[in-house]
Amino acid sequence: MMMPRDVAGLIRVSLLWTAGLLLLFVITGLTIRAYLQHLAADELAIRSPNGVQQGLYVTIGGIEQWVQIRGEDRNNPVLLFVHGGPGSSTLPMSSGWRSWERHFTIVQWDQRGTGRTWGKSGDAIAPTMTLDRMTQDGIELAEQLRTRLNKHKIGLIGHSWGSFLAVHIVKQRPDLFYAYIGTGQVVGRATFERAFELTIARLQALARSANNVDALAELAPIASQPTVNEQNHSVTEKWSKALALPPVDSFDLAGAVSPPFMPDYSLLDWYYWNRGIALSDRLLRGVRSPMFQRDLASLGFEFSMRVLFIEGDQDYVTPYEPAERYFEQIEAPHKEFVLIHGGDHFIPFDRPDQFLTELLARVRPFADPTPP
Q1: What is the pTM of this model?
Q2: Which residues, in sequence order, are CB contacts of 215 under 8 Å at separation 6+?
């Protein structure tokens, strides 16, 4: 008969074996990840003699903010990508932009409260995360990039939240930019009201297919007056779950390297990425956010640089119709609205080659790469 002491000993041995196997599993996983990151670094390396491949902190708005600069030829025009989210650093998702770097010097920026910039300041930066302060951050960065990369002007791409921020940047300092490119363009409350209308329509279609009379009854009054408020949002959340409404923010990322294996992106960086998302979500999204409370029309419609909108006709996050109405009122030396058939909210990430084709045709020939 086994004694209690023997049972305790077996438990200790079992726990030690389990801990050992878990440790071995973790070590093996980290080793494989490090090896795949090494291969990715080799694949993404800039080797051209006049190329640039830098990642560094620069002082912007009194804090250190992370900037990445990559391109095969310093003589190429510069494009600063203003990420969306808010708080969604594009650093781990940008391997699909390798082809862009043959024609442009691409700058990525972890905005205030985002990613590696969050890693330097943490949540203490929260009181300064305002649209006005972040607009000034973008202006300061553009000025620094002109000096660092010896350019007279740079181009600005804004995606989603970044498109709203980017328009504020170019409107305040148009002299810094040769072009503005908006994608997943947010214009203000109208963008989210249209997205809400589309959500209701999709839910009604699912409810009709399922012959769900309860859902149809609850959705009908909202559909007749689709106001974005807490009560209506609660109803749509309820039926989105019950009817299994497919998410609108999922996409198939293009690029040679999957985000978990991007080189020089540590597990600590992923922690920063998630913490920045959480902070930005709390401060810069929702009905009290700048995107709801302000409207791009209030800035006026005059632009002194080329303006290009690249929008997807299947974008349910920031539907293209409000952006198109805003675009029609824009006065610029040259403007173009490109509607991508089948394109979603994430065209720069899931269709980077198609996005580049538009940049090469409509922006690259007119860029201002060097000082006059």
Answers
A1: 0.92
A2: 203, 204, 206, 207, 239, 242, 243
